[in-house]
Amino acid sequence: MQLSEATWPEIRDCESDLAVLPTGSTEQHGPHAPLGTDAKTSAAVAEAGVETYRERTGADVPIAPTIPIGVAAEHRAFDGTLWVSPDTFRAYVRETVASLAHHGFDRVVIVNGHGGNTNALREVTGAISREDAAYAVAFTWFDSIDTEAEMGHAGPVETSLLYHIDDEAICEAELETAREGAGEGWGEWVAGVNLAHDSDEFTDNGVVGDPTTATADLGERLLARSGEGLADLLAAVDSRDR
Amino acid sequence: MQLSEATWPEIRDCESDLAVLPTGSTEQHGPHAPLGTDAKTSAAVAEAGVETYRERTGADVPIAPTIPIGVAAEHRAFDGTLWVSPDTFRAYVRETVASLAHHGFDRVVIVNGHGGNTNALREVTGAISREDAAYAVAFTWFDSIDTEAEMGHAGPVETSLLYHIDDEAICEAELETAREGAGEGWGEWVAGVNLAHDSDEFTDNGVVGDPTTATADLGERLLARSGEGLADLLAAVDSRDR
Amino acid sequence: MQLSEATWPEIRDCESDLAVLPTGSTEQHGPHAPLGTDAKTSAAVAEAGVETYRERTGADVPIAPTIPIGVAAEHRAFDGTLWVSPDTFRAYVRETVASLAHHGFDRVVIVNGHGGNTNALREVTGAISREDAAYAVAFTWFDSIDTEAEMGHAGPVETSLLYHIDDEAICEAELETAREGAGEGWGEWVAGVNLAHDSDEFTDNGVVGDPTTATADLGERLLARSGEGLADLLAAVDSRDR
Amino acid sequence: MQLSEATWPEIRDCESDLAVLPTGSTEQHGPHAPLGTDAKTSAAVAEAGVETYRERTGADVPIAPTIPIGVAAEHRAFDGTLWVSPDTFRAYVRETVASLAHHGFDRVVIVNGHGGNTNALREVTGAISREDAAYAVAFTWFDSIDTEAEMGHAGPVETSLLYHIDDEAICEAELETAREGAGEGWGEWVAGVNLAHDSDEFTDNGVVGDPTTATADLGERLLARSGEGLADLLAAVDSRDR
Amino acid sequence: MQLSEATWPEIRDCESDLAVLPTGSTEQHGPHAPLGTDAKTSAAVAEAGVETYRERTGADVPIAPTIPIGVAAEHRAFDGTLWVSPDTFRAYVRETVASLAHHGFDRVVIVNGHGGNTNALREVTGAISREDAAYAVAFTWFDSIDTEAEMGHAGPVETSLLYHIDDEAICEAELETAREGAGEGWGEWVAGVNLAHDSDEFTDNGVVGDPTTATADLGERLLARSGEGLADLLAAVDSRDR
Amino acid sequence: MQLSEATWPEIRDCESDLAVLPTGSTEQHGPHAPLGTDAKTSAAVAEAGVETYRERTGADVPIAPTIPIGVAAEHRAFDGTLWVSPDTFRAYVRETVASLAHHGFDRVVIVNGHGGNTNALREVTGAISREDAAYAVAFTWFDSIDTEAEMGHAGPVETSLLYHIDDEAICEAELETAREGAGEGWGEWVAGVNLAHDSDEFTDNGVVGDPTTATADLGERLLARSGEGLADLLAAVDSRDR
User: Fold this and answer.
1) What is the pTM of this model?
2) Integer angstrom CA distances of residue A242 from A237, B164, D225, D230
3) For chain D, which chains pass the contact test of at least 3 CB pairs under 8 Å?
4) Distance of alpha carbon C167 from the chain centroid
5) Whose CA is closest to E219, among E169, E171, E167?
6) Carries keyword Zinc (chains A, B, C, D, E, F) (predicted)?
7) Hey, what's the torsion of the CAs at F107, F111, F117, F123, to 10 degrees?
């Protein structure tokens, strides 16, 4: 259930103590994919996971609105990238979770679509779980799935998922350009340390990986697997001692 | 242009120094209207204003993603209401505007759909304009239009706009209930002071005003007038000395 | 009772759970009125209201010292204007109210003399009332009265009150100059939005309105009406459930 | 010159780059002296020092309004004591000094009347002088003078100064009581460390020292000496490299 | 060169713009290893790396004192564990790096001995490098080396390094106990998400891995490899564009 | 007992509710003494005091690791001086004390070796004792002892203690230089106010006092007296009502 589409009495009548909060980012995804990619993918995975969970258990879990802007200063060399500081992102997430908990939804799974949010989410879910009246964990969909495809950035994995959920969002005419200007790997590594704090240090056009290999079929499988992973997680969060 | 739907090179090629940032809220809107009302209305007004401005001038203005959760602790007695503190809301808006300005969009009009955000937005746009590398003002759509209808909360004005932009979001079956449990006015006033800090002190079901009088026709006129007001404002912001 | 003039045993013996906290500002008031105008007027109104309340009920209410510097960056183009950030102002007020509440004065009416403080006070009294061990509201005297005279800034209303409470503070020789350099209205408005964040954008000498029309008689009536409004408010705050 | 009593053009025409900012406290001063003692004394010393400096040099120095509430949690066991946290006090002082400096008064002497403010003022004047566009130091009047009388708290020194500047503020009938319930010294010391964080741990009525020995004559001498000290300091601050 | 052992003229004469800052933690390391393990290991690795770099290049790099307490709330169920919040840890590191940069050491490698610090260090080095007058990266020694041994917590890797650098710090009598009460893996995982925010959820005695397999020989090799990795990193940091 | 050298079960079995937390500074100590002087001396005094207390009472008190970097911006003109802001220092100390208290060590004596930390420690121990679940005081060793020698900075007192505890840390060859470039007194005083915020305003080489008069004998006596003072304080803290 999308919380935004429900009225307050409908939420009052919802018996769940689970809720899902998607977090995206508005940041460059190469010349072929839209700035809103991570918000789209986190929202789609949240919906898939909640639907799978509903099929398995009959229980409906409210999905809060997607937080659209995250921790993305690393991409600021590319136009249109929006970002807030990790402190502000954590505060926005933490207080949103607190308001969910105020209404009884005190087991919250954050469904995340952006790698740059991951560390901040691990930190803030720890703080929430230790100090606030709620338990929270963060699920970053592309870390939950095994796939032969390369994650990269705006690469085959993300582009495939976009093909499946919103193919009009992809500029097909730019895919070849995207491939040509892509970086070979994420970061510039020496002795296990990434020397690069920003993505323009290792990719000319913001892409890492080859998005021309993306397919809607792979996207469908990725969404299904992510949804199953999220449903597994919701079940575990529902049943554990807080 | 929706920034989220564009790629970074498309944004790079956009010559505007204007941008629009919608701010909503996820909060009770009575038994008949969805929790996401203020995000829907601010997004719709932003789009209408940018379209009117484009028709008048030929210039396209990017619309950032809607900030979905705002300053709404006053509605926390009603289920599903989400909120962050004014400090966190201001920080989230301010840093988002700073990232827009980083890319050259340093004249930002915030299009707001929630009364509870208004004071925080006046404060933060002053701080941005004085201290940061950008100029910003906030446009709260229902304060920009003259109308015979009552604003209230989830009353005829908001409900009419919803009828026009997303009529499926309204629970028509609950309209009569909404009218019956509505408060008569916003607040509990003595000597020019509102004694009530929270809305449940003066409305049983969260509504103020009579939403049964709402019509899609009125909604259409409200959107057109708001869009014109916003286009006027964009022109003024574009041409003024910062 | 002025808290500052009392000893601690006198305050211990005071049975009120009401207290009054005046907030002023130190900021330009044109060429004819002193920088301390808003501190003077808020203190005078506080005293008048507490005296009226004492006459009506027999109860004495302690008046805390006036906070002299507020949210006034908008006037910083004019010499001598002092200001703190809204965050610091809110913290100073909030902690002062907490210390009043520590001693049992946990129903606090802030008596405000400066328009620029209003939004910050609405926000902080909401936070106090929801989260702290006190209830607070803010009474801005010129918003509580109906008058034919124009508020403006350093205009007929404020100047009249000064004539009544401290006529030596007015430079009569500058009144004509004040009138001539005054702005016509507060702000620069387009589509319901004030484009101006600072007062020097719409007034050459800091004045809005015509202070030459001010009279001590009007000042006396304004003080009486404000005092009555404040006494009404104190009664309402005293009797309501917190 | 009292800044609050001046108009903005008068301040504009003032050629000083010196300014004085008094800081008081609103806190218990025993059964015989008012809660506002420290605000009264700091204001009186500021005025005396500025007058002495004017007599010596012909230059007038603006005196900002007294900050009335300071760092006084240590007295919170006694009714009517108001306080803010050291962080908030420092922010309030620092931003006030910044606004003085904005108008060219960038050599600021804080005239302090409360021991509990001293450490916070040393810290914040260091931060201002190192990081902001101003130089500041704090002058705590009773630390600047040699006297045979004991400082204590609400003891002979402060009570004598009150006798001279505002004798009606003293409850003479309570002086004997004040003497009887007074503590013998400030604090509870072991190995050079004061174990007591709060004053009620070592004084029953808030007094330290014997206020019955206070005289207006001593008060007059204390004010003169403090004024001379402050005038010396103003001269030194005026002439030093920042 | 240990900065703490040098005088200020010796540091003035040091021509490096590199510096090393070790960060440890004071936290449980099972029944057999001391609470200060992570401070000892980070200091030892820092020294080894600086020595290797000196042998290779002839250049001496100052080592700042080890920050002894880090982000370790996850171990708070075990006695003696000390921790600060991630915010405070980041501020302490960031300001320390800024003071190094003030003296010209504006390329700083943080040598970290504690997994719980890693995310906070990645975040703060990004902020330093983007916003401050310095470049910084963090080197977590056990992430820089390939080894057949299991990292775990207080397991074979850490225990081996302790055997090599400070064997008296190990309680050999407790090694068997340590092995018996150890957890099998770090965390409690579902769908790629660690449900456990605290270590007592998955280990009875704080250990993960089998410390009885630790040897001083392995410790020696680990230190050598870590020192080489750090020397490689110092060279890369020295030569890159900031 | 050094907490860092103990295992967690050893700390669990320690019955004390006392703990000691040393705070140093890493800052210039003239041409003859190391930057780490204040960390060395506070650690030595902590150890001496805890040993004396153990001899007197049989009770062992855990000593937390020394916080190595403190409030020392005043020395930043001299190379190698490290510092954090007072806010960050207070947060680091406060949270460390809170974690000690979490394990039952809720009577904490901070043993301080740096004058610049003193005000910040007085403030934070007050805040801890009033607001947190612990009692804390700060013992600055050179303020606890009577001695004929001059404290100064890197003068006879500190240098003597270094001679006793770590004579290799002293550059004897620089002692004469140290004496010659030393300032005559700490600060630049007018009317009881130190005009100097930084030490390079009154000392050319960072020294105040004559370190050539230092002796190991005096150092031994200073350490003994400080240890006795600290043991007295521990006894007083142990037995007082919190």
Assistant:
1) 0.98
2) 8, 44, 66, 62
3) C, F
4) 18
5) E167
6) yes
7) 20
Of D157, D131, D127, D128, nearest to D226 by C-alpha is D157
**Nearest CB partner across the interface for B191, out of C73, C85, C230:** C230
Q: Which residues contact B195 (CB under 8 A, 6 or more apart)?
A: B187, B188, B189, B201, C137, C236, C237, C240
Q: How many CA atoms lie within 13 A of B156 on its CB side?
A: 13
Buried b (16+ CB within 10 A) or exposed e, E147-172: eebebbbbbbbbbbbbbbbbeebbbe
Query: What's the start-to-end Cα distance of chain B, in Å?
Result: 24
**CB-CB neighbors (< 8 A) of E88 in chain F:** 88, 91-92, 95
A242 and E CB contact within 8 Å: no
Specify the pLDDT at position E147. Answer: 78
β-pairing, F193-194 vs F189-190, is: antiparallel
Specify the pLDDT at position B147. Answer: 78
Calculate the CA dihedral of residues E47, E48, E53, E55 and round it to 10 degrees: 110
Which SS3 state, helix, strand or coil, does residue E26 take?
coil
Contact residues on chain B for A74, CB-CB shorter than 8 A: none
Work out the average pLDDT over E206-215.
96
b (16+ CB within 10 A) / e for B66-77 = bbbbbbbbbbbb
Check pLDDT > 90 for residue F148: no
Spatial distance between the Cα atoms of F191 and D230, rounded to a whole number of angstroms: 7
Across the interface, whether the CB atoms of D11 and C99 are under 8 A apart is answered: no
**Domain C3-151+222-239 -> CATH class:** alpha beta
Q: What string of H, E and C letters represents the secondary structure of E134-170?
A: CEEEEEEHHHCCCCCCCCCECCHHHHHHHHHHHHHHC
Alpha carbon of C164 to those of A212, C168, C170, C176, C223: distances in Å? 80, 10, 11, 19, 8
List, in sequence order, every beta strand (DSSP E) within chain B.
18-23, 107-112, 135-140, 189-190, 193-194
Separation of alpha carbons F76 and E102, rounded Å: 8
Q: For residues C39 and C26, what is the distance between their CA atoms, to the nearest angstrom?
A: 7
Single out the residue of B116, B114, B137, B141 nearest to residue B127, CA to CA.
B137
- Say if residues A156 and A35 touch (Cβ distance below 8 Å): no
Interatomic CA distance for residues F237 and B45, integer angstroms: 65
Per residue in F166-181, is it b (16+ CB within 10 Å) or e — as a string? beebbbeebbebbbee
Q: For residue C126, count other CB atoms closer than 10 A to its CB.
A: 21
Give this complex's ipTM: 0.97
- Report which DSSP code applies to E30: T
* Cα separation, F159 vs F170, whole angstroms: 8
Both tokens of residue D146? 């040699």
Is C159 an interface residue toward D (CB < 8 Å)? no
What's the CA gap between F184 and F150, in Å, rounded?
11
Q: Delimit the domains of chain E by residue range.
A: 3-151+222-239
pLDDT reported for residue C148: 75
**Distances, alpha carbon E84 to alpha carbons A190, E30, E117, F100, in Å:** 30, 20, 11, 11
Query: Binning pLDDT at 50, 70 and 90, where does residue B150 land?
Result: confident
Give the span between the Cα atoms of A132 and A129, in whole angstroms: 6
Cβ of residue B146 closer than 8 Å to a chain A Cβ: no
The residue assigned the tokens 């950008």 is B134
